């Protein structure tokens, strides 16, 4: 089994740029203003315009409602220190890199629509 996330966003192009420039995802096929799939290793995220959801769709957020509330997107990387330093140089706000009590190192970042992302790796002593 593999997991692919579909995010419904306000500005597809801004999301494509974030996932490409900040998190090193690559566009699969042609980028579109309606729907674009991006991958990094085995992680796959598709961005769709919010208007694609019908007005009665259970995922449709109303104006002013925070997207992704109650969801944490977790990306596992091999070199957390290197990935963290790369992201810090790209100018997007990012939390501190911390060692968690459960033995993982991680940092947190928010995408343009407010989706919460935790980037993590096993701590090497």
Automatic annotation (TrEMBL):
<dbReference type="InterPro" id="IPR037523">
    <property type="entry name" value="VOC_core"/>
</dbReference>
<feature type="domain" description="VOC">
    <location>
        <begin position="1"/>
        <end position="122"/>
    </location>
</feature>
<dbReference type="InterPro" id="IPR029068">
    <property type="entry name" value="Glyas_Bleomycin-R_OHBP_Dase"/>
</dbReference>
<dbReference type="InterPro" id="IPR004360">
    <property type="entry name" value="Glyas_Fos-R_dOase_dom"/>
</dbReference>
<dbReference type="Pfam" id="PF00903">
    <property type="entry name" value="Glyoxalase"/>
</dbReference>
<protein>
    <recommendedName>
        <fullName>VOC domain-containing protein</fullName>
    </recommendedName>
</protein>
């Amino acid at each position: 089994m593999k997991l692919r996330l579909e995010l419904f966003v306000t500005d597809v192009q801004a999301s494509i740029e974030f996932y490409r420039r900040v998190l090193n995802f690559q566009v699969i096929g042609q980028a579109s203003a309606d729907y674009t799939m991006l991958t990094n290793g085995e992680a796959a995220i598709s961005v769709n315009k919010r208007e694609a959801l019908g007005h009665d769709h259970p995922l449709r957020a109303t104006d002013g409602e925070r997207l992704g509330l109650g969801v944490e997107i977790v990306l596992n990387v091999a070199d957390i220190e290197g990935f963290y330093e790369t992201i810090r140089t790209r100018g997007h706000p990012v939390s501190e890199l911390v060692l968690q009590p459960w033995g993982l190192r991680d940092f947190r970042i928010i995408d343009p629509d407010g989706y919460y992302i935790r980037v993590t790796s096993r701590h090497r002593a």
